[in-house]
Amino acid sequence: MEIIAIVILIALGIYIEIQLYKKKILPQIIYDCHFSIDEVMEGETLEIVEVVMNPSRLVVPCLKSEIVTSNHLDFAENVSTVNDKTRSLASLFAIKGHQKVKRTWKVKCLQRGAFKLEDTMVVATDLFGCYSYSNMLKLNSRLIVLPRPIDVSGYIDYINEAQGEQVVKRYILEDPFVIAGVREYAMGDSMNKIHWAVTARQGELMVRNNEATSKKSLTLIVNTQLYSEQLKEPVRDERLEYAIRIAAGELDKTILESTPVKLLANGTINERDESLVTNQMWGQAHVHELFVLLASLGETYTEHFDKFLMHHESQIESTEVIIVTCYIDEPMLAFARTKQKAGVRIKIYLLSYEEDSKKYEDVEIYYLLDYLKKVGER
Q: CB-hemisphere CA count at 13 Å for 198?
């Protein structure tokens, strides 16, 4: 009888312990996981911070969580699990009563991008391991890894000195802020230049006539297609990363020169099937915003590049246009020649090797892969 009584008491004690942990202890556990900062440059390091707090008096012998994020964030490489998209790490805690535990993981950002910590399942047990409590927690921590700029201006200057810089027109375009009367509409005029009040009086399309300006402005266009026949599917390629970093380098230069810049790309932003098209502005805040947009470019394109150029040609009113692309074709050359006839300087930065180059006397094309490999850029 005594043995039976002892067994009953033990069973009752375990039952009370389970109910206590089930209702009072484990649901009160606080878990948080976040990036130490929300923005870094490609190649830099930061921390992933885990915090667990036990507000009760009793010990929580085992709490398990799992950190899941992009495989472009390198941390705990010896114990983490990596696949083609994600990196995950199981994390175990034992927390005393009224204790707060903080754990940090050093993270190196291998590639630009917009990343997040995936929602995690937290699992905890009571003292005897008889009861397991689980809770799905939403983690709202986000990280922007900005592209690390590549400056190719030294190489461009070297090529021009070695080959003799082409004779080009003085790049003078109309200044949209200085109106010098109106004139009749001509083929190729932008629709936003139409003066509707005068058009109504004259009975024919009339446009604002702007004074000329020699002030430099830049439109930067990134082609996210790797080749002209590419299907609309996600593709990872180092050349696209080169293109984005070269674009970042050109953006960087506009800050020192106070050059108004406009950024376009036929790439998806934040998983939305929308192209990247910005306003033309200048200043550090504007350029930083463009860096964030470049960081967020996805692995698929929105529309074929020749159609993209055709759809946005009328919005390009800068004195200079730089196209960063992995290939070149006739529609791209036709676009360049049309803009050059209008007095716009066109430069094409081509992610190809010099040995594959073709000479185009009337278009500035720079084959950059040899240079990038030579200077050790990945």
A: 13
